[in-house]
Automatic annotation (TrEMBL):
<keyword id="KW-0030">Aminoacyl-tRNA synthetase</keyword>
<keyword id="KW-0648">Protein biosynthesis</keyword>
<dbReference type="GO" id="GO:0000049">
    <property type="term" value="F:tRNA binding"/>
</dbReference>
<dbReference type="InterPro" id="IPR008925">
    <property type="entry name" value="aa_tRNA-synth_I_cd-bd_sf"/>
</dbReference>
<dbReference type="GO" id="GO:0004824">
    <property type="term" value="F:lysine-tRNA ligase activity"/>
</dbReference>
<feature type="short sequence motif" description="'KMSKS' region">
    <location>
        <begin position="302"/>
        <end position="306"/>
    </location>
</feature>
<keyword id="KW-0547">Nucleotide-binding</keyword>
<feature type="binding site">
    <location>
        <position position="305"/>
    </location>
    <ligand>
        <name>ATP</name>
    </ligand>
</feature>
<dbReference type="InterPro" id="IPR002904">
    <property type="entry name" value="Lys-tRNA-ligase"/>
</dbReference>
<dbReference type="GO" id="GO:0005737">
    <property type="term" value="C:cytoplasm"/>
</dbReference>
<protein>
    <recommendedName>
        <fullName>Lysine--tRNA ligase</fullName>
        <ecNumber>6.1.1.6</ecNumber>
    </recommendedName>
</protein>
<dbReference type="InterPro" id="IPR020751">
    <property type="entry name" value="aa-tRNA-synth_I_codon-bd_sub2"/>
</dbReference>
<keyword id="KW-0963">Cytoplasm</keyword>
<feature type="short sequence motif" description="'HIGH' region">
    <location>
        <begin position="56"/>
        <end position="64"/>
    </location>
</feature>
<dbReference type="Pfam" id="PF01921">
    <property type="entry name" value="tRNA-synt_1f"/>
</dbReference>
<keyword id="KW-0067">ATP-binding</keyword>
<dbReference type="GO" id="GO:0005524">
    <property type="term" value="F:ATP binding"/>
</dbReference>
Length: 548
């Protein structure tokens, strides 16, 4: 079987046709939708359009990242399945929305409070750096996506509404006004039904997006009648003088832009259903898409930005890596995921395990390897087979022993026991994780570490381990040291019981944790003398049993 270094494009194409990896399964929906590729009226091949949505009433977050990443994975899978058919990805900003409440994480809140209900692009920027609050957040979105190398086209709702690009689609909403009401009204509470309108006119008196009943006067001219501050007015909804209700807006956008694929969270399931029906009424076809499960905190509760019970992308990148975040988001998108700091170390190590094995896998297995997809997400097909000389878990154990005040230089001095050419410049990925491990240890590990005193039989076994280490040459390999530890644990003389009890005792007495690394690897990393010092500390004040 061919591997990543030798597989020809034709072999990848062939293997992709039967791959069960979820991006390929999603992409097949589009292959079925466009059997010969997406074509224009003249039969020319045109790009399949993928879309992601962003609400700029707040700053970009981990949910924004995961939606763009996952959509990109499906996009690349589609390109592979079709042998390179063209695609586009639009990052759409719903910046015509009226501001409903003032976010907590902005300065100059009064600037926003005075403009509640106004479109986000017509509200001053409280940061004082951009034309409006939405322009500020849109710039952050683009910087955010550029930071991770995503290939996308930014589209602003305000630009489309204000320029008239949506005018024909808005007229079509007026033409189908009653049919849209028939879809939406049964889904609303009685009180909401009395004021609901698919179209939200923007008041020419005070600039607010109005939630008022609307009567269609002339669909072809885009004219509606509604009450504004006690006066009945007739006003155009074209050229930025209105916006649509969320579900109607979504459907209109699908039709106007020709969106073929868009995924969303489980909380929007009903919205998808209703927007799909409205799309059909408007003469379009709903996009294909994936409904993914939501994130949960460490207590199993739904993550809420207002509660602050989640994990920000900045926090993940402080304690882990971008690749590990992508790896975690790749897996099982239809299953709810915990999102808290405790999951980061395992995600880092699993990413590198999958990355290391990629070149040796048959091409069929490669296409099921998350790293294969992640490396192609932004056009980078290199890096397969790279290894991390020390696992993140082992690195955390080392830093944990060194203590909360450990420095990067100290960690690298110990890495010299284990890593060939232990120079940060030679191992940039490892160096990044050294910094991450120091932060993770400071915030999560050091405050919880508590080494217990060994029981008498455990103390005897530790003393025996110390004696063996004293007689062991510094050139001993991690495997040699692991065998040494293993043999002591098997010795019935110490009455340890199962080997797992012996290793647990080592973790709890030497490292201050109930779980840990392969001890041979840890001893090789920390050094024989350093490990003997840990044993001496553990045995200090403990009475050893007399020899038989």
């Amino acid at each position: 079987m061919e591997n990543a270094e030798t597989a020809a494009p034709q072999d990848i194409f062939t293997a992709s046709q039967t791959s069960k990896a979820w991006p390929f399964e999603e992409a097949r929906k589009l292959v079925k939708r466009f059997p010969g590729g997406k074509r224009d009226a003249d039969g020319n091949l045109v790009p399949v359009l993928f879309e992601t949505g962003y609400g700029p009433s707040g700053l970009p977050h981990i949910g924004t990242f995961q939606e763009v990443l996952r959509t990109t994975l499906v996009r690349r899978a589609y390109e592979t399945l079709t042998g390179g058919h063209p695609t586009r990805l639009v990052a759409f900003s719903d910046d015509m929305d009226g501001l409903r409440k003032v976010p907590d994480n902005v300065p100059n809140k009064q600037v926003l409070a005075e403009k509640l209900g106004h479109p986000l692009t017509r509200i001053p920027d409280p940061f004082g750096t951009h034309e409006s609050f939405a322009h500020h957040n849109n710039a952050m979105l683009c910087d955010f996506l550029d930071r991770f190398g995503f290939e996308y086209e930014f589209v602003s709702a305000s630009d489309r509404y204000n320029s008239g690009a949506f005018d024909e689609a808005l007229k079509n909403v007026l033409r189908k006004y009653d049919a849209i009401l028939d879809i939406m009204l049964p889904t609303l509470r009685e009180e909401r039904r009395r004021t609901y309108s698919p179209v939200l006119p923007i008041s020419e008196k005070n600039g607010e997006v109005l939630q008022v009943p609307v009567e269609v006067v002339d669909a072809e001219a885009g004219l509606v009648r509604f009450e504004d501050q006690g006066e009945m007015v007739v006003q155009s909804i074209l050229g930025g003088k209105s916006k649509l209700q969320w579900k109607v807006d979504w459907a209109m956008r699908w039709c106007a832009l020709g969106v073929d694929y868009e995924m969303c969270g489980k909380d929007l399931t009903d919205s998808v259903t209703q927007s799909a029906r409205i799309t059909q009424v408007l003469g379009g076809k709903r996009p294909e898409g994936l409904i993914y499960e939501l994130f949960l905190d460490e207590n199993g509760e739904k993550i809420s930005k207002s509660k602050g019970n989640g994990l920000t992308i900045e926090q993940w990148l402080e304690y882990g890596s971008e690749e590990s975040l992508g790896f975690y988001l790749f897996r099982e998108p239809k299953s709810a995921k915990s999102l808290h700091a405790g999951i980061i170390p395992r995600a880092v190590d699993e990413y590198w395990q999958f990355r290391e094995k990629l070149p040796s896998q048959p091409i069929e297995q490669q296409l099921g390897n998350p790293v294969w997809h992640l490396l192609r997400a932004n056009g980078d097909q290199g890096g397969a087979g790279d290894t991390l000389p020390v696992t993140y878990g082992l690195l955390l154990n080392l830093v944990g022993v060194l203590g909360a005040q450990a420095t990067r230089a100290q960690v690298w001095s110990y890495l010299g026991n284990y890593v060939e050419n232990a120079d940060p410049a030679a191992h940039p990925a490892l160096d990044t994780l050294v910094t991450s491990a120091l932060a993770y240890n400071r915030d999560f590990v050091a405050p919880t570490l508590k080494r217990r005193k060994p029981e008498r039989n455990e103390a005897a076994a530790l003393a025996a381990l110390d004696a063996e280490l004293a007689a062991t040459d510094d050139s001993a390999t991690a495997e040699d040291l692991q065998t040494l530890v293993y043999e002591i644990g098997k010795d019935p003389h110490y009455g340890i019981g199962a080997l797992r009890d012996w290793f647990k005792a080592l973790y709890e007495t030497l490292l201050g944790s109930s779980q840990g690394p392969r001890m041979g690897s840890f001893i090789a990393l920390y050094g024989i003398e350093g490990t003997r010092r840990l044993i001496a500390e553990a045995l200090n004040g403990v009475e050893l049993p007399a020899d038989d």
